[in-house]
Every structure is written in C-alpha cells, then in structure tokens.
Amino acid sequence: MRRASRPSRRVSPDAEAAAVPIGALTAWQGLERARLQAGQRILVHGGAGAVGVFVIQLARLRGAHVITTASAQNKEFVLGLGAEHAIDYSAERFEEQVQDLDAVFDCVGGDTLRRSWRVLKPGGRMVTIASNSEAAEDPRIKDAFFIVEPNHQQLAKIGELLDQGKLRVFVDAEVPLCEAAAAYSRKVESRRGYGKTIVVMPALQNR
Ligand SMILES: NC(=O)c1ccc[n+]([C@@H]2O[C@H](COP(=O)([O-])OP(=O)(O)OC[C@H]3O[C@@H](n4cnc5c(N)ncnc54)[C@H](OP(=O)(O)O)[C@@H]3O)[C@@H](O)[C@H]2O)c1
Question: Which residue of 48, 114, 134, 138 is surrounded by the most CB atoms within 10 Å?
C-alpha cells in the first residue's frame, strides 16, 4: 500500500482526538448499513474528506475493494489510504468507469448521488450522509440517508484500531475560532486539503 502523505507540521493530540468521533463513527455506521463484506467493491464519494478518509480505511480493513472520487490534488493521498482506483470528479465521469458495485458510500449528494444509482449491481446498497440528502423527498434517498449516532462500543473499537496503527487520523488545519469562517471558505473555494479542519477554542489555545 502507498503511504498517505501528511503535513510535516505537528498536529496537537487534542486536534487529532477531535478529528476522530464524528468522521470515524459516521464511516463505521455507514459501512454497517452497507453490509460491506470482504471481497466486495465499494465506491466512496469524497474519499479525501473528513468522513471519507475513514470510510476508505475501514472498508479496506473489512477486506473490500475501494474505488473513490477525489480531486486531482488528492489522488495520491486517497491511493495511499488504500483505495485501488481514484477518479478525478472534475475531469472524469465515475459512471463511465465503474459498474456492478456492491455498495456506494456517498459523502457528496446532489448530482453525484443521482448518478450513483446506476453503478450499483442489483441488490447493491446505497448509503448517503450528505447534508443535502437530508430533506430529500425521494424514498430511495430517504432510505439511504442516515445521521450518525453516538456509540460507545464502536468508538472503543475505533480507538483500538488507532492504537494499533491500523487506522490513521488526518488533520488538515488547526484554526482559532475567529478564523473558522475564513478557513471554511478557503477550503471550499480552493478545494485543497484533506481530512478534518479543527477549530481551536480560546480556552485551549495556549495550553
Ligand atoms: N449524516 C451524518 O451523520 C453526517 C456526518 C458527518 C458529515 N455529514 C455530511 O457529509 C458530507 C461530507 O462531510 P465531510 O465532513 O467529509 O466533508 P468534507 O471534509 O468537506 O469533505 C467533502 C469532500 O467531498 C469532495 N468533493 C467535493 N465535490 C465532490 C464531487 N463532485 N465528487 C466527489 N467528491 C467531491 C471533496 O474532495 P476534494 O477535497 O478532493 O476536492 C472533499 O474532500 C457533508 O455534507 C456533511 O455535512 C453528515
């Protein structure tokens, strides 16, 4: 497996800890819903994102074959996480490259989700977490959408995988609260970075 590159700057343990629960639990619960088994093929949309980095890694740990969509800048990164194939969503149409999949894990929604049904094989499972899927009227999307729930046992298992070095955390940036909005806009506009952006609250900043 290629190594996923990561920034050379130090990331605080607090930031790494903060990057885990929502991303990893969402990935874990989505893969449960997808009933993903060893040897099956899954397409992960948004594999370089805060949730996607965990979906790729946990799907690989289940022994699945992972294909992911990501921007060109993040191609090497997602391959390093264990994806076998990365599709640049701004230059290629994923539905022309993959078919007959066992599952799709969608972190993007909208048009990406609409185009994803056709790449599933009969009986294939769709999972979407994208916020724009939440208010959907389409019964198929309602069925595919879920919201992460706290789960102590799952979080403990995730902690074990982290301790064993089988799962890795990726913090894109740590920013003070007063810069949170600007950092969010930068990330959305520049489409650079991967993993989670952490907002550091004032009380923690000078520890
Ligand atoms: N339902 C739940 O329980 C739950 C839990 C957590 C998050 N969410 C939601 O899930 C979504 C993803 O969350 P996140 O924290 O992972 O977001 P994120 O860190 O912003 O990551 C989103 C990723 O999507 C990629 N992307 C953007 N446009 C794309 C496209 N057209 N095709 C494929 N990939 C594309 C980006 O890739 P590049 O960086 O490579 O451009 C980015 O890495 C958000 O809507 C969030 O609100 C829901």
Answer: 48
For the whole prediction, is pTM greater than 0.90? yes
CA of 131 to the centre of ligand 1 (A): 9
Give the Cβ contact number of residue 155 at 10 Å.
Answer: 15
CB atoms within 10 A of CB 135: 9
What's the domain count of the chain?
1
> pLDDT tens across 5-63, in order?
444 457 889 999 999 999 999 999 999 999 999 999 999 999 999 999 999 999 999 99
Does residue 75 sit within a domain? yes
**171 within some domain:** no
Which contiguous run of DSSP H or E holds residue 102?
strand 101-106
Task: With respect to residue 148, please indicate whether it lies within any of the assigned structural domains.
Answer: yes
